[in-house]
Design a protein that fits this description.
Number of strands: 4
Number of helices: 10
Shape: globular
Bound molecules: fe (iii) ion
Largest sheet: 2 strands, parallel
Radius of gyration: 18 Å
Strand content: 5-15%
Helix content: 40-55%
């Protein structure tokens, strides 16, 4: 019920299960090659930096999070799918064939009126790319990674999400290959919306757990 307890539990899980492959943290030879190629193309005038940024923006803000949003909207409207998503997300999303990877062991955790979930990778920046796209900059920030564990309520409030003290906060630390995604609560007054309209309400941050969705079209 309190944050300290969550913290202890978290540390415990972390010690025993957080075996990381840190290939993605340091620059891989592929990443270095990609960067070199990118600078060369820009230098030769074959590619504009702007175009590269556009691709990244597209991946970060649209393609990825939209996949997650689609899953959330479907879970809100299809109880059978929601059940499958919560019991084995990797299996449940297999039919979509999402690109981007990092969802071989995807776990979806559901927000309820009593419990709020947030996701972190305390050691680096593990993230379910295929459903959420590229991680936001702050997700990789050491301050977020340590504080969301140590003082989740305070940090979330600073990030704009003030949770009532009677709401339990659980923080999920990405382990070996496990990636987490939050299933946010469906906003009120959305009964008449279609699945697509619902998906449009779902923000990336609500699926990381640093935001909740309030009235249609708005997030808190
Ligand atoms: Fe990591």
């Amino acid at each position: 019920m309190n944050d300290d307890h969550d913290h202890d539990e978290h540390k415990h899980e972390h010690k025993h299960e957080h075996k990381h492959e840190h290939k993605h943290e340091e620059k891989s030879p592929q990443a270095i090659r990609t960067e070199a190629l990118e600078s060369l193309l820009i230098e030769k005038g074959l590619l504009s930096e702007h175009a590269v940024d556009n691709v990244i923006t597209n991946y970060a803000q649209r393609v990825g999070p939209m996949n997650g949003a689609l899953l959330v909207a479907r879970a809100w409207t299809d109880p059978e799918f929601k059940q499958r998503l919560l019991s084995n997300a990797t299996q449940a999303i297999a039919e979509y064939d999402f690109k981007g990877g990092q969802v071989d062991h995807l776990v979806v955790v559901e927000n309820t009126p009593e419990r709020h979930n947030a996701v972190v990778c305390t050691l680096c920046s593990c993230y379910p790319w295929a459903v959420l796209g590229l991680p936001p900059k702050w997700y990789k920030d050491p301050a977020y990674r340590s504080r969301i564990v140590r003082e989740p309520r305070t940090l979330l409030a600073e990030m704009g999400l003030s949770l009532d003290t009677n709401i339990e906060i659980r923080v999920w630390d990405s382990s070996a290959e496990v990636r987490y995604m939050v299933l946010p609560m469906r906003p009120e007054n959305t009964d008449n919306l279609t699945q697509d309209e619902l998906a449009a309400l779902v923000s990336r941050d609500s699926m990381i757990g640093v935001e909740v969705l309030s009235q249609a079209g708005q997030s808190s």
